[in-house]
């Protein structure tokens, strides 16, 4: 079955520290992969996406993610956390098998400590 | 440019009632998708429409239906509301169906009492 899994529902980092949010997918065919951010009482904003080509993808706000087929992973990183990065982050996969399905992970809430 | 708009912003309904939620995509986008986001969880895919045809469907009961109009706006209908239908309903638009990145609206918060 196709799925997207985010490890760690809550992650805390100090301001200036590395941010690492984990995402793994399950599918016989790699899906298109996305990271979204959601601030309280707002919709989702696309951070970055991987479809084909270069496996290291750079997004907005200094975030990047690397697609690793051998590990079925698409982890999100940022070298230096900022207080404004505190939000909920969702990994999502676009799966095509017959009809199209877009599957989100359960989310990781990022807390940035001063 | 206007982003994805949804109406209404908030809605309170009683069990058993019917509700219609509306979405207008970004100008030029031909695909609209609907998601249900229960508090504390990730969005769950309900439907995707492209050029007025259903292109994808998630695991939701037949009480949920949708349609897309010639101007690419969309409605999501939910019949016989249950308490468990209380959630944030998100609409997303994209240029085409499939792999294209989606742009999300602010959502409609539905409360069923």
Which features would summarize this protein structure in a list?
heterodimer, A: mainly beta, five-stranded antiparallel sheet, B: 113 residues, mainly beta, seven-stranded mixed sheet, four-stranded antiparallel sheet, globular
Q: What is the straight-line distance between the termini of chain B? A: 37 Å
Q: What is the beta-strand fraction of chain A?
A: over 45%
Largest sheet descriptor of chain A: 6 strands, mixed
Average residue pLDDT of chain A: 92
State the share of residues found in helices of chain A, binned by percent. Answer: under 10%
Beta-strand proportion of chain B: over 45%
Query: Based on CA inertia axes, which overall geometry of chain A fits?
Result: globular
Q: What general outline of chain B do the C-alpha atoms trace?
A: globular
How far apart lie the N and C ends of chain A?
Answer: 41 Å
Low-confidence stretches of chain A: none
Biggest sheet details of chain B = 7 strands, mixed
Mean pLDDT of chain B: 93
Task: Give the class of chain A from helix and strand content and strand pairing.
Answer: mainly beta
Radius of gyration of chain B: 13 Å
Count of β-strands of chain B = 11
| Order of H and E elements of chain B | EEEEEEEEEEE
Share of helical residues of chain B:
under 10%
Biggest interchain interface, per-side counts: A-B, 23 and 25 residues
Q: Tally the beta strands of chain A.
A: 11
Structural class of chain B: mainly beta
Q: Topology, pairings included?
A:
The complex is a heterodimer of chains A (114) and B (113).
Chain A: E1 3-7, E2 10-14, E3 19-26, E4 32-38, E5 44-50, E6 56-58, E7 64-68, E8 73-78, E9 87-97, E10 99-104, E11 108-113
Parallel strand pairs in A: 2-11
Antiparallel strand pairs in A: 1-3, 3-8, 4-5, 4-9, 6-7, 7-8, 9-10, 9-11
Chain B: E1 5-7, E2 10-13, E3 19-24, E4 31-37, E5 44-50, E6 53-57, E7 64-68, E8 74-78, E9 87-94, E10 103-104, E11 108-112
Parallel strand pairs in B: 2-11
Antiparallel strand pairs in B: 1-3, 3-8, 4-5, 4-9, 5-6, 7-8, 9-10, 9-11
